[in-house]
Amino acid sequence: MSLASPAECGGAGLSDVDCRLLGRAVELGRLGWGRVHPNPMVGAVVAREGRVVAEAHHEVFGGPHAEVLALHGVGDARGATVYSSLEPCSHRGKTPPCTEALLKAGVARVVYWAGEPGDAAGGGGAWLARRGLQADGPFGERADWAAENPFFFHAPELRRPYVALKLAVSLDGRIAPREGRRFWLTGPEARAEVHRVRAGFDAVLVGSRTWEADDPQLTVRGEIEPRVAPVPVLLDRSGRADPGLRALSGEGGPRGIVFTCPGEARGLARRLGDLADVAAVPAAQGGLDLVAILQSLNECGIATVLCEGGGTLGSALLALDLVDRLYLFLAPVLIGASGVPAFPRGPGGDPESLVRVFRGWRSRLAPVRFGNDTLVVLDRGA
Amino acid sequence: MSLASPAECGGAGLSDVDCRLLGRAVELGRLGWGRVHPNPMVGAVVAREGRVVAEAHHEVFGGPHAEVLALHGVGDARGATVYSSLEPCSHRGKTPPCTEALLKAGVARVVYWAGEPGDAAGGGGAWLARRGLQADGPFGERADWAAENPFFFHAPELRRPYVALKLAVSLDGRIAPREGRRFWLTGPEARAEVHRVRAGFDAVLVGSRTWEADDPQLTVRGEIEPRVAPVPVLLDRSGRADPGLRALSGEGGPRGIVFTCPGEARGLARRLGDLADVAAVPAAQGGLDLVAILQSLNECGIATVLCEGGGTLGSALLALDLVDRLYLFLAPVLIGASGVPAFPRGPGGDPESLVRVFRGWRSRLAPVRFGNDTLVVLDRGA
Question: Which among A31, A83, A253, B80 is most buried, taking Cβ atoms within 10 Å?
Answer without folding.
Answer: A83
